[in-house]
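Z., the sequence and structure:
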Amino acid sequence: MNRSMRRFLLGLALIASLSLVACANTAAILTASSWPGMTVEGDTIYLASGQRVYAINAETTFARWRYPLEVSGGGGITGGRAFYAPPAVTEDKVIITDFVDNLVALDRETGTELWIYQTNGERSIGGPIIEGDTIYLGDSGGVLHAVDLDSGEPIWTFAPEGTRGIWARPTIEDGILYYTSLDRHLYAVDAESGEMLWRFPEGDEDIGAMAITPLVLDGVVYFGTFFNELYALDLETQEVLWTYEATNWVWAQPIYDAENDLIISGDLDGQVFALERDSGELVWNFEILAGQVVESPVLVELSDPERRLLFVTSGTSQQNLHLLNPATGEPEERSVTLEGDFTTSFLFFPNTSERAVPVYTAPIIYNNVILLAAHQGDFPLYALDIESLVEAWHFDPQPGN
């Protein structure tokens, strides 16, 4: 199969992965289904899930507020809005994006809408980042936006010729934005002016589409492609230092384990791999059967007994949270299968059952619990005790909770 055909099939699979359904020959009706986005600041968990964003008190497990207060329809352009990107949080604001074309600033205490900036019909999939007084986000049309945090007014936009969708958040380092695009390039853009400094590859070499937030570390940027490769690129010279050939798309942002000097990531075949930072040589590999790794693993320091663990979520309905030794990749004897409650009705009689749900969102460790977000079932958020891995609580999104 040639690479042009592979690109076509990859594009079809990408569309399917976000469960986008369109109705042609009429006004487009677009319904989105994806995994939740989650951010923790202070004692509040900000969860973007389906038709709402929730600010959840981590101590009481109840919602401080929810946005919007009222929803209508089924979560599409004509019937409502869907929220999946992780919120960005400042001292007094929560910045969110919906799956239409809205960037929204909310009051952090009350959830009151402060302003809306629109991205001309293009949705933001990866969500925003904030640096100083500026918000940066990419959209599905391939445009990078810089927006004033206080007013919501545009500062600049950047859209190179022939650009395609930006599906991941950018990274900012020393005043430079680094982001990947479905047009098969990594871009470096001046954060103040919006001018392109360079792109890789410089020409139109066929290295694979990208939908990953780059990792920038000590003058090197690490990023993956949909041609199953993880790159290490010198920021000063744009020279490829090494590449690692995975078995499927590399979508999960790499992380750095400083203690073992390893770059760790995963792919859509469920392979979690650790590489020597300097050479890219494989140190260990762990296979998650029938699962996909789409978000970053998380390193955790535990105290009882004292040890370090790598937590990995996967898109499988069995053993969807894995605990690995970050130095060796050896799994702990325990693994977790998160089971969600599903309420259905038959002849007006409700019935609740439990079944396993896939977990795509990266876990967050907070106050001795593991926060896991689920996009299936009655409850979008679960907290597991970090030592016992037993459910400590879950969040009920129904009003009054």
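The CA atoms of residues 40 and 46 lie 6 Å apart. Residues 1-32, 74-79 have pLDDT under 50 and may be disordered.

Let me know what you think.
H.
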